[in-house]
Structures are given as C-alpha cells and as structure tokens.
Amino acid sequence: MGTSTNANANKNTSGETDAKIIVEELILKARKAMAEIQNYSQDQANTLVQAVAWAIYRQDHAEELARISVQDTGLGNVKDKITKNKRKTFGTLRDLLAPEAKSVGIIKVDEAIGITEIAKPVGVIAAAVPSTNPGATPANVTMMGLKGRNAVIIAPSPKGASTTVKLLEYIHAELAKVGAPLDLVQSLPMPVSKELTTELMKQADMVTVTGSANNVRAGQTCGTPNACVSAGNVVTIVDASANLQDAAHKIMLSKTFDNATSCSSDNALVIEAAIYEQMIEALKKEGGYKCTVAEKEQMQKAMWDENGKRRGKTTAKDAGVMAQEAGLTNPAAQKASFFMVEETGVGKGYPFSGEKIALVLTLYKAGDFDEALELTKRILNHAGRGHSCGLHTTNEEHIQRIGLEMEVCRLLINQIQCFGNGGSFNNGLNFTLSMGGGTWAGNNIKDNLSYQHFIQTTKVSRLIPEVIPEEEELFGSYWAKYGRS
Fold first, then answer.
1. Choice among 263, 291, 389, 409 that is catalytic
2. Interval 30-60: pLDDT, tens
3. What span, in angstroms and rounded, lies between the C-alpha atoms of 70 and 77?
4. What are 265-280's pLDDT values in tens digits?
5. Which of 93, 142, 228, 230 has the most CB atoms lying inside 10 A of its own CB?
6. Separation between Cα atoms, residue 240 and residue 370, nearest integer Å
7. Are 254 and 265 in contact (CB under 8 A)?
8. Is 409 labeled as catalytic in the residue annotation?
C-alpha cells in the first residue's frame, strides 16, 4: 500500500514538474512576442484583430473548423457551428474596430478634472475554452486580447484540442502575412491535461475561463487575476400580453441553435396560465413535441444516469438522436425539432429545472405574472443566477418590474435569447461568447467579456483649480430632516 502511494506521489510530482517546464517555455515565448509589439499603434493592434478574425471568418476555414469540432467533440451541428464561427467573429470585429474602442496609448483626456488615461497590456492571457465552442471562443478571446497588445495562450478542452490546433494554424498564417510574431497566440500542446491547464493559470498574468463549473472554479481560485464567467440556465417568461407565435418562433430558434450548446439557450419557460395551452400549441407549430408523463421519464433516464450525472450520448445531440436514445416511438416525436417537458418542481430532485445542453425545453405554468417572477427566481437560485433571463411581453409595467426584481446581469425583452445575450446587431450588448454573472454568480465581472477586460490603465492626474463645497451644500438636506445635534 505504501509503495503504491509513494509511486503515485512520485508520478504526480513528475507530472507537475513537466507541466511547469512546458508552461514556462510557452510564457517565455509569449513575453518575447509581446516585447516585439510593445510600440504598436492602435492601427497596428487593430490589424492583429482583423488577422485573427479573417482566420476563422473565411468561409472555407469556418466550415473546416465546424466540421472538425462536431466530428471530434460530438457536440452541436456543423451548419450552426459555421454560422457561429462567422457571426460572432463579424460582430466582435465590428465592436473592436469602432472608433471609440481605444486600447493603445492615450485613450481618454478629461481636462475638467485633469485626468489622462493611458492604456497598457495586462500581459500573458491564459484562455481556457470549452468543448462546446472550440473554434469560436478561442478566436473571440484572442481578438480581444490582441486588441490590447497582449499575448494569448489557449487551454482547450481535450475533446476540442484538435479544432484549436487547426484554428492556430489559420491564425499563424494570417499573423505571418502582417509581419507579427506568431508566438502572440499559442496553445497548450496535445494531449491537453488538467496539470497543464492548472499550471498555465498559475503562471499567466491574466486568466479567463469559459466552460464547465469546475473549470470556472479553478480559474477563480488559481490566485491569478481573472475574468471568468458563469454557468447559464436561461429562464424565459411568456406573459398573457405576449405575441405568442412571435415568442414561440424566437424561443425555437434559441433552443435549437447548435443543438443548445450555448449557455444562452432557453432552458425553461414560465408561462402565464391564461395563455399556457395556446403557447404550447404555438411551440408545436415551431416543431416542438410535448412529452407525455411516461415519455418525460424516458427522456430523463436518457439524459441522466442513476447518480444524476449528465449522459454524453444525449448532450447537444440532434433531435432524432434524442428521440432514439429516449425510446420515443411516436412518429411526431421522431420528427420533432425539440422536446418539451412539463415540470412543477425546482432543485436537485428535478433535473429538468437546471441547465441541460440539450434540445429539451422545460415548461412551468404560473397563475399570473407575480407567480411567474417568483418561480423564475426559484429556478435561477437553483441554477443560473446572475447570468440572464428573458421576457416576452407587450406590457411595459412587466418590463420595469422584472428589471428591478430579477438578479441577472442580462434581461432580454422579446428577443432570441441565444443570439441576443452575447451581443447582436439589433441590441446594444457587445458581441462575445463569454458572459459574466457578477457577484450573484461568484464572478469578478458582470459584463459581456470585451477587450476592456484585457487592458489596464494609468491615470495621469494634473492639478486643477481647487473646488471645495460649502457644508450646507452637502449636509443641508440631512440637517433639514434630522437636525444638527
């Protein structure tokens, strides 16, 4: 027993030493590359961003990365992966090339208060990315990182590593065209391991993690400054005033895109009782199939094992695969685009109340809008608090109420949740594939990840004419109410 324990300890020590040496070499190369671009202008930094964007946006590249991703991870579908690779990249490029998106040198001068802000790199960024988006997410983070003249080292998931290797090949070809050092963008070598990823997080100057709860937790506790993001479990309310067919169509698009790999895919619908049946009919017209009680039980067994662990064979799979794995024999179920299950409970004993990464939409009936709000809070407190929720309505009072009451960082009104949360051309959120949930989710950031998280600033303060207010100006209203004694 003692011999075995010592052997394992020696093996672990050896693995940690090897990981440390490998990562040290990557970090050294990254710092040398950063030194080469330390005097880049804003235009030159923007060119780096364009180079990375073109590396994945180019149609043949977008298609190849999508094909490899689905082939090697078994998650999502090629058609939507192509759309994601192009749309997210194009939208992010728009944001990063905006005239106001300054990330180099003097970015702001406020003469009235005597403050000049100067942008500088944060350093070498460790970017842990998920198997659900092994092409789009690393490209997205890399664009943001290079915008601030940083170097980026990607830590892919083991399943998605092959996609990242191909992406890196494309990125390096574009960086070579513009005369930039290739080591600005690197990846952990295959086979990717937990030891390598952990070591990278320790040695980097900044960490960003998009992915599983365990990976996010590792990023947030690694001791390195980080911008890690939260898990999603989007809940959308449909109230009695909503345009039901419009809502159903948008919910279907959100639920089915890339087989629900997105953290912003609708997971649960809370529907007011007055329009509950009509809404279900509207969803059926969009390709939804409502499972019977028995079929719901079959679906649950196909999605979770007896210990409550999510089964890979039904994670982000096509609807036909879901039906087959669940043993659904109804022809309508076999032709469905997505599935609906009715639920009343919330919590560990009710797995459909959490994030599923599957073409399954959980339906809850609420007596009225008050009950819908409370039910949504319960679901989000179980899973997804801080991330986002949605509302389909024409009632302005309901919009105000949910905005004031819901503890989420993003609230989308009458939108396609999956597309809108991470930025869209028809809303004001910046494009990203990584969304923070703030303190509600235990995250350092509450925003959509952007280039601003990868720059730090020096504030140069100059003397200005002294301005000292009178006591009455600051205490007057308090004294008037409560006196001065």
1. 263
2. 999 999 999 999 999 999 999 999 999 999 9
3. 6
4. 999 999 999 999 999 9
5. 142
6. 12
7. yes
8. no
Residue 298: both structure tokens together: 């079959």
Amino acid at 413: I
